[in-house]
Write a structure and sequence with these properties.
13 strands, single chain, two-stranded antiparallel sheet, nine-stranded mixed beta sheet, globular, about 350 residues, alpha/beta
């Protein structure tokens, strides 16, 4: 079967047999139960465990992106993929292509941007549509590998309760290292989109893996899996990729143009009302996403109201607590200010004096 020609209706029928091959077989009495409290923010002082290092700069520019990356690149080697959300056509909020070009030319010559086709019909649903959109959005300065263009493979999910393995684009295992370059923002289904969402949805292939995460088989709502269960499924998909790359993976989150909408929504995204903040980087996926969330919550009520409402209404904070349960990193960290001699700062210091967003 050519996965690129499966329609949504055909996909749901196709999925009937797939879960028994790839998703934990459970009877009704032992079915997984989602966690809780994905709508409740846990303050830093209530967290326990070790601290990781997260780097921070307010310098929203190619130089700031390069500076943040240079702090976490020690184990990036061999054939490198840069996992990036390249956006729908003319989407206004994606990381500027010129910034990524500067980073790749200076630090990652020979790297490829890696992407997957979408689960929804749109500008990136088929490879042909996706290629046109990439050109329209300026992703022409380096190779862009649509990793599910030809086929899929499965990677094991260790310790998951929803999956034993995850279906990803077949090209992904051809890379030795992965740089996860993420536009941090809100998300219609996930509450927020950080590094977890960038990998968990973004590396799952467009027809099989994404369907396992989003849709219960044998019903017509493509997006019926939501709140804590969705966060857990997405995070288990992320874990498959993180475990595969081991230490050869690094995370850079760009807190700029933070609509409550994902870049999947393109020009239809909700207007940005949250101030721009800066760029964060780490080799710990939980720490970097948690730090971004902490910076959002450290803003004033007027600055963060819309984004916090989006995060909590979708129970998106379950992404963080489930990453911790799965042993994917630390939710405590040392935040290093790259703009002021590398001293440790608090999230409140990082967001002090933010300027209102200007389009």
């Amino acid at each position: 079967m050519d996965i690129k020609t499966i329609t949504t209706v055909g996909l749901l029928a196709f999925m009937v047999t797939l879960p028994f091959l790839s998703i934990n077989a459970q009877d009704e009495n032992s079915a997984p139960v989602p966690g809780v409290d994905g709508n409740k923010y846990v303050p830093y002082e209530q967290r326990k465990g070790n601290e990781s290092i997260v780097y921070f700069t307010r310098n929203l520019s190619p130089d700031g992106l390069i500076s943040a990356y240079q702090k976490v690149c020690a184990d990036i080697e061999g054939r490198v993929g840069v996992k990036l959300h390249t956006g729908e056509q003319n989407g206004p909020n994606i990381i500027p292509a010129a910034w990524v070009k500067a980073l790749i030319e200076k630090e990652l010559p020979g790297a490829s941007i890696v992407e997957t086709n979408t689960y929804y019909a749109g500008d990136r649903y088929t490879t042909e549509q996706h290629r046109r959109t990439l050109e329209e959005n300026g992703w022409t300065f380096c190779p862009v590998d649509i990793i599910d263009e030809e086929d899929t493979v499965t990677l094991p999910v260790f310790g998951g309760k929803w999956f034993d393995c995850m279906s990803v684009g077949s090209h992904l295992p051809t890379y030795n290292s992965l740089v996860v370059l993420t536009h941090f923002k809100g998300h219609t289904q996930g509450g927020f989109g950080g590094s977890d969402k960038n990998i968990g949805i973004g590396c799952a292939d467009g027809r099989i893996g994404k369907a396992w995460i989003h849709t219960t088989p044998n019903q017509n709502n493509q997006w019926d899996i939501a709140k804590e269960e969705f966060m857990e499924r997405m995070t288990e998909s992320t874990k498959a990729v993180v475990d595969y790359f081991g230490k050869h993976i690094a995370y850079v989150n760009v807190m700029r143009n933070m609509s409550v909408s994902c870049d999947c929504e393109g020009k239809a995204a909700a207007p940005v009302v949250t101030p721009n903040v800066g760029i964060l980087s780490s080799t710990d996926i939980l720490a970097v996403d948690q730090a971004c969330i902490d910076l959002v919550y450290a803003m004033t009520e007027s600055e963060h109201h819309d984004l916090v409402e989006r995060i909590e209404s979708r129970h998106g904070l379950r992404q963080l607590s489930y990453m911790k349960e799965l042993g994917m990193g630390n939710d405590r960290y040392v935040l290093i200010d790259l703009d002021n001699g590398g001293r440790r700062i608090t999230p409140a210091e990082a967001v002090k004096g933010l300027k209102p967003f200007v389009k």
